[in-house]
Design goal:
The chain has 267 residues and is α+β, with helices and mostly antiparallel strands. It has four helices and eight strands. 19% of the residues lie in helices and 46% in strands. Strand 4 (146-166) and strand 5 (171-191) form a beta hairpin. The chain is elongated and about 65 Å long.
């Protein structure tokens, strides 16, 4: 990365004044971003259907790449102020395990508030308190029981604690741990066969109350409006193991995986 900037400097910048003007310009961040991404070959196409654990390394590498570019391009960011705000959005969630990662997405929502504590012009800590709905929808087709789907609906109170790096006045990347408490859970079976209702007795008692993981995303800020995308990668198994052989746990090895889009208002 530095060799690109050094070569550019030797060929295009003749004195300290020009160096300062170049760093303050928009061309600097574009140049650094292009050079870094070219050197590391960070080219990814992320679709909603591709947000699975096996893509997590790619997502984290992208965020890390943008963070390093931000550190190099810090002079382009103006002073940031602390703020409080409200936010809401939609979630695309599913479960994953060592054996299964093709669960169908469940579309749900989130909402809550945040506090962004600006420590410097380019760095802030942002804790949030969110009501998050997660889960999964699994379709099945068996000869005896017919067609149907199982919807697992989990409602959490979630607290992310994020480190925010301002790349420009309007663009930031953020990452950090999240901690969740399960408020309620419900498993529903919708089957062509009315007698096939083995999940009716499943509720929050079958799930672990605490969940935690890693959150990483990107945000855009315009005046008071806030837009962003984020991925939550669960690190703990959410289901309890059943000791009853007649009612085996169907969730014991599953973990949460959630991609979200949100809109916020800062004050």
């Amino acid at each position: 990365m530095y060799k690109y900037c050094l070569n550019f400097y030797e060929n295009s910048v003749d004195n300290a004044t020009q160096t300062y003007d170049f760093i303050q310009s928009d061309y600097y961040i574009k140049f650094c971003l292009f050079s870094f991404l070219y050197e590391w070959n960070v080219i990814y196409t992320i679709s909603i259907k591709s947000i699975k654990p096996k893509n997590m390394k790619a997502i984290l590498k992208t965020v890390l790449s943008l963070s390093i570019v931000g550190l190099i391009c810090l002079p382009t960011a103006k002073a940031q102020e602390s703020e409080v705000g409200i936010k809401g959005g939609i979630n695309f969630s599913n479960f994953y395990s060592d054996e299964v990662d093709d669960q169908d997405l469940r579309f749900s929502f989130q909402g809550g508030m945040y506090f962004k504590a600006a420590l410097t012009s380019f760095f802030a800590i942002q804790p949030e308190v969110l009501y998050m709905t997660k889960g999964s929808t699994v379709k099945y087709n068996y000869p005896i029981v017919g067609n149907g789907k199982i919807s697992q609906k989990l409602n959490y109170l979630e607290v992310p604690i994020l480190a925010v790096l301002n790349l420009t006045d309007n663009l930031n990347v953020h990452a950090g741990p999240y901690f969740s408490y399960l408020i309620s859970a419900k498993i529903e079976n919708e089957s062509d066969n009315a007698n096939f209702n083995f999940v009716n007795e499943q509720d929050e008692s079958k799930f672990e109350r605490m969940d935690y993981g890693i959150a990483a995303g990107i945000g855009l800020e315009f005046e008071t409006l806030r837009f962003g995308a984020r991925y939550d990668y669960g690190l703990t198994e959410i289901g309890k193991n059943s000791n009853d052989p007649n009612q085996p746990s169907i969730n014991s090895d599953l973990k949460n995986s959630t991609f979200s889009l949100y809109l916020g208002i800062g004050f």
